[in-house]
Amino acid sequence: MKTNVLGYPRIGEKRELKKANEAFWEGNLSEEELLAVAENIRVHNWTLQKEAGIDLIPSNDFSLYDQVLDFSFTINAIPERFAPTQSLSELKQYFAIARGYQKDGIDVTASEMTKWFDTNYHYIVPEFTKNQAFSIKVNKPLQEYNLAKKHGFETKPVLLGIITYLLLGKEKEAGFHRLELADRLLPVYIELVKSLVEAGAKTIQIDEPYLVLDLPQGAAEAYKKVYTALKAQFPNTEFILTTYFGALENNTELAVSLPFDVLHIDLVRAAAQLDSVLKALPKDKKLSLGIVDGRNIWKNNFEHSLALIEKVKEVISSDRIYIASSSSLLHSPCNLELENNEKVLTPEIKQWLAFAKQKVKEIATLKTLALGHDLSPEVKAIFEENKKAAQNRKTSTLIHNPEVKARVKAITDKDSQRKSAFATRQKVQEEALHLPLFPTTTIGSFPQTPEVRSWRASFNKGTLSQAEYDKKLEKEIEESIRWQEQTGIDVLVHGEFERNDMVEYFGELLSGYTFSKFGWVQSYGSRCVKPPIIYGDVSRPKPMTVRWSKFAQSLTKLPVKGMLTGPVTILQWSFVRDDQPRSETATQIALAIRDEVVDLEKAGIKVIQIDEPAIREGLPLRKADWQAYFDWAIRAFRISASGVEDQTQIHTHMCYSEFNDMIEAIADMDADVITIECSRSQMELLDVFADFKYPNEIGPGVYDIHSPRVPSKDEIYHLMKKAIAVVPFRNLWVNPDCGLKTRHWEETKLALTAMVETAKKLREEYKK
Ligand code: GLN
Ligand code: ZN
């Protein structure tokens, strides 16, 4: 039996890498200084894994920016358009590909990023051409292996698998499929592996998470071909084939047939696959059991894990079993020990948690317990403590709120339905709101100026009193309302100045939520997020936003939109419970939001927006599972929105993704109005409306808020005309792509003025 870690977080316990990278980009840190920080982090990570007793410690799991980019860089798959960066140092060139570069007479835009499977981590998308060539540019895997060796660590190099790497990329021209490049990549891959083997590597991990997805045509053959060829070259090297984030299912036969020595499977995300994998696994192969969750923050339940290991032991012998993290630990925060503020994270809750460093220890302890002979008093004590924590979590009154559970149980179909159908609501709302054709609105937030942020910081530190803070916010809201009135916007917003983040803000006001101080997880490059933690049944002790919306509405006769985050997005951007299904947690949040919606209506708010930007990223990896997701996710949204009268207009907002393939589910949400990101793709989204008649009102974003660029009236007009071609014009709204909180007021004012003027022009044109 061996212990196996698939990868460790690389940002550093206190985000040292983030800080060093950003300082380097600003020109405030030298290359040597940056590389020294990067080396320290690796040595720190290797040390703690070795001290914990991990047998297979990963190397090349580190990255300065992204592991997929690292691989592209290693094999010289650098898109042609970055040719001008060749004059830069290697390191600067690397970052230029990631982030773009506009200096020294060079002007290249950043590479595209997209989500790493169904996580919140974003990788740099490889770009391939038909004649794509590969060669070793920098042998980063070898450099890292040797670095570890220099510091006295024997490691297991981690390589992205050939097929997964190619499938993660994109063809940049027509006439070929990227899988056809496998043959050309193979010799370079063999060269890489050869260098590692010659340097002394005994075990190599090859990541092929694509095996848990629906594979495209030809992939199975490509898998067999390249890995048969690879293994033939290195008969004495132990190769671990790693799959994670889901079940192998129909790819089980393929996976076990590949000439790997060890198969790794994710038993946290997909425990049910164990039986079929055990049945299919050939006698000469080992199995790596991914049982310590790489993507969440809960302490492992040792009794459960041991039961599972026992089950495996009945089929295969101990020496063929590896105990492992389910995936790389990249997706969990670094170190729970740093959380020593009992007001932020109480000791009772803390005892239920484990971050990466603690998870590494869990893996080691599980092996000791599973082997079972002569347990030291220390290990026995750890086991006892683990059992106690699990028991406590099962019964804690902090977690279990019978009222919430009963309310969820009592939900009926009626609760997820508005009183009348959309056509009826539309008429009633027209009378209640008196909006013009092509009504204008914004998505909610206005610029969060350094000033606004500084008030919040002072308030949190205690140097600004609640009353003073509120006063400043009220003044900011009043100014924004006046400006919107003057500019001629039809449905106003209060501006969200009181919010730090659209999920954290609600998390802080809901029960069942807690927070960490250092629970950072890499999102992309130097960007980290600190997801709040849902530990218990969620409920809303008191209204959360009514005070601000009511105040804003009191200042004007025009409608002010209430502004809420929807249940699916709150769920998606938090660490969630693993002791009940996601659907159950989503429903609890939905009820809390529903109460807020009803309270807003009671307070005189006539338009309420429930943001669901994350609804698409919750989609399961396999298409066969989509419908089940829609069933609960769309229902959760509808529960949150359906407590109000017909004349209250419910908006929702979505961004960050392509929605073309789930447009019917979006329609099924039955929001009266949806505002949706569209402008970056030049309204490509609207193509689907040629076939699918979206039934309700829609505001396709008319300009990209991610850039400071001010759109011209012409551009906006042109985009709206595209929309008018496929959506009945009476159903169209005019609005930006997303919230404006990252923008400056200057460009915001210019852009929104252009937007309002365009709407006026359209009104003239379509008057009759
Ligand atoms: N209402 C939020 C805002 O305007 C929406 C943010 C988002 O969609 N990501 O900031
Ligand atoms: Zn948005």
Automatic annotation (TrEMBL):
<feature type="domain" description="Cobalamin-independent methionine synthase MetE C-terminal/archaeal">
    <location>
        <begin position="438"/>
        <end position="760"/>
    </location>
</feature>
<feature type="binding site">
    <location>
        <position position="120"/>
    </location>
    <ligand>
        <name>5-methyltetrahydropteroyltri-L-glutamate</name>
    </ligand>
</feature>
<dbReference type="InterPro" id="IPR002629">
    <property type="entry name" value="Met_Synth_C/arc"/>
</dbReference>
<feature type="binding site">
    <location>
        <position position="668"/>
    </location>
    <ligand>
        <name>Zn(2+) 1</name>
    </ligand>
</feature>
<comment type="pathway">
    <text>Amino-acid biosynthesis; L-methionine biosynthesis via de novo pathway; L-methionine from L-homocysteine (MetE route): step 1/1.</text>
</comment>
<comment type="similarity">
    <text>Belongs to the vitamin-B12 independent methionine synthase family.</text>
</comment>
<feature type="binding site">
    <location>
        <position position="655"/>
    </location>
    <ligand>
        <name>Zn(2+) 1</name>
    </ligand>
</feature>
<feature type="binding site">
    <location>
        <position position="115"/>
    </location>
    <ligand>
        <name>5-methyltetrahydropteroyltri-L-glutamate</name>
    </ligand>
</feature>
<dbReference type="GO" id="GO:0071265">
    <property type="term" value="P:L-methionine biosynthetic process"/>
</dbReference>
<feature type="binding site">
    <location>
        <position position="573"/>
    </location>
    <ligand>
        <name>5-methyltetrahydropteroyltri-L-glutamate</name>
    </ligand>
</feature>
<keyword id="KW-0808">Transferase</keyword>
<keyword id="KW-0486">Methionine biosynthesis</keyword>
<dbReference type="InterPro" id="IPR013215">
    <property type="entry name" value="Cbl-indep_Met_Synth_N"/>
</dbReference>
<feature type="binding site">
    <location>
        <position position="655"/>
    </location>
    <ligand>
        <name>Zn(2+)</name>
    </ligand>
</feature>
<dbReference type="Pfam" id="PF01717">
    <property type="entry name" value="Meth_synt_2"/>
</dbReference>
<feature type="binding site">
    <location>
        <position position="496"/>
    </location>
    <ligand>
        <name>L-methionine</name>
    </ligand>
</feature>
<dbReference type="GO" id="GO:0032259">
    <property type="term" value="P:methylation"/>
</dbReference>
<feature type="binding site">
    <location>
        <begin position="443"/>
        <end position="445"/>
    </location>
    <ligand>
        <name>L-methionine</name>
    </ligand>
</feature>
<feature type="binding site">
    <location>
        <position position="611"/>
    </location>
    <ligand>
        <name>L-homocysteine</name>
    </ligand>
</feature>
<comment type="function">
    <text>Catalyzes the transfer of a methyl group from 5-methyltetrahydrofolate to homocysteine resulting in methionine formation.</text>
</comment>
<feature type="binding site">
    <location>
        <position position="738"/>
    </location>
    <ligand>
        <name>Zn(2+)</name>
    </ligand>
</feature>
<feature type="binding site">
    <location>
        <position position="677"/>
    </location>
    <ligand>
        <name>Zn(2+) 1</name>
    </ligand>
</feature>
<dbReference type="GO" id="GO:0003871">
    <property type="term" value="F:5-methyltetrahydropteroyltriglutamate-homocysteine S-methyltransferase activity"/>
</dbReference>
<feature type="binding site">
    <location>
        <begin position="527"/>
        <end position="528"/>
    </location>
    <ligand>
        <name>5-methyltetrahydropteroyltri-L-glutamate</name>
    </ligand>
</feature>
<dbReference type="InterPro" id="IPR038071">
    <property type="entry name" value="UROD/MetE-like_sf"/>
</dbReference>
<dbReference type="InterPro" id="IPR006276">
    <property type="entry name" value="Cobalamin-indep_Met_synthase"/>
</dbReference>
<keyword id="KW-0489">Methyltransferase</keyword>
<feature type="binding site">
    <location>
        <position position="653"/>
    </location>
    <ligand>
        <name>Zn(2+) 1</name>
    </ligand>
</feature>
<feature type="binding site">
    <location>
        <position position="677"/>
    </location>
    <ligand>
        <name>Zn(2+)</name>
    </ligand>
</feature>
<feature type="binding site">
    <location>
        <position position="18"/>
    </location>
    <ligand>
        <name>5-methyltetrahydropteroyltri-L-glutamate</name>
    </ligand>
</feature>
<feature type="active site" description="Proton donor">
    <location>
        <position position="706"/>
    </location>
</feature>
<feature type="binding site">
    <location>
        <position position="496"/>
    </location>
    <ligand>
        <name>L-homocysteine</name>
    </ligand>
</feature>
<keyword id="KW-0028">Amino-acid biosynthesis</keyword>
<dbReference type="Pfam" id="PF08267">
    <property type="entry name" value="Meth_synt_1"/>
</dbReference>
<feature type="binding site">
    <location>
        <position position="617"/>
    </location>
    <ligand>
        <name>5-methyltetrahydropteroyltri-L-glutamate</name>
    </ligand>
</feature>
<keyword id="KW-0677">Repeat</keyword>
<feature type="binding site">
    <location>
        <position position="653"/>
    </location>
    <ligand>
        <name>Zn(2+)</name>
    </ligand>
</feature>
<keyword id="KW-0862">Zinc</keyword>
<feature type="binding site">
    <location>
        <position position="611"/>
    </location>
    <ligand>
        <name>L-methionine</name>
    </ligand>
</feature>
<protein>
    <recommendedName>
        <fullName>5-methyltetrahydropteroyltriglutamate--homocysteine methyltransferase</fullName>
        <ecNumber>2.1.1.14</ecNumber>
    </recommendedName>
</protein>
<feature type="binding site">
    <location>
        <begin position="443"/>
        <end position="445"/>
    </location>
    <ligand>
        <name>L-homocysteine</name>
    </ligand>
</feature>
<keyword id="KW-0479">Metal-binding</keyword>
